[in-house]
Amino acid sequence: MDDQINTSAEAAEAEVLPCRYDVKCNPDGSINRSEETGEAVSKTPPSQKSPAQWAYERVVLYLKKFEEGLDSNHEAAIGFTGADAGVLRIEGMGYFDPDILTFYGSDPAGGKTQLVQHVSQLNVMLRAFPKQIENAAPNRIGFRLVEELEADSKGK
Fold first, then answer.
1. Rounded to whole angstroms, how far apart are CA atoms 67 and 142?
2. In a domain, 138, yes or no
3. Tally of domains in the chain
4. Structural domain contains residue 9
5. Which of 12-21, 60-69, 70-79 has the lowest mean pLDDT?
6. How far is it, in rounded angstroms, from Cα 121 to Cα 100?
């Protein structure tokens, strides 16, 4: 039970403004801090999101942010820590309410791969892999997944 007393405005803000905070230490000793509030992708109120939807949206946002730092010769992949699942070149993601996430893609040998994971076991590492096709634009799955979430929020 929460003993903190909030105004109705504070309660409403807490309901719709999730926060992401990152600190990165640079080799030169400088520090980059990033705090973003209100970065939720879908318009679904937080109290109505399942754990699977929450996890899905946050992984998509991290994936998009990771891709923003990649050059045109690399694409995002996910490494699954704590298991022998290996690495998956990301081709899609999904969730199954209330608590399952799935990752679609291919392994380094090109084999079709799908991982189904409970949100309580979610532990992924974003990796940069050289793109598969020379001279083709890199596949930016994070950007496309964010566009899909935004379209769903608008009722498309």
1. 7
2. yes
3. 1
4. no
5. 12-21
6. 10
Is the predicted pLDDT of residue 128 greater than 80, yes or no? yes
34 in any annotated domain: no
DSSP the chain: -------HHHHHHHHH--EEEEEEE-TTS-EEEEEEES---S-S-GGG--HHHHHHHHHHHHHHHHHHT--TTEEEEEEETTSS--EEEEEEEEEETTTEEEEEEE-TT--EEEEEEEGGG--EEEEEEE-SSTTSPPP-HHHHHHHHHHHHHTT-
Task: Pull the structure tokens for residue 144.
Answer: 């496309």
Asked whether residue 150 carries a pLDDT value surpassing 50, the answer given is: yes
Cα–Cα distance measured from residue 48 to residue 131, given in angstroms and rounded to the nearest whole number:
38
Task: Flag whether 16 is in a domain.
Answer: no
- Domain with 139, as residue range(s), is 48-153
Query: pLDDT digit string (tens) for 22-69?
Result: 677 777 878 877 766 655 567 777 778 888 988 888 888 888 888 988
Residue 140 — φ and ψ, nearest 5°? -105, 80
| 124 CB neighbour count, 10 Å cutoff | 20
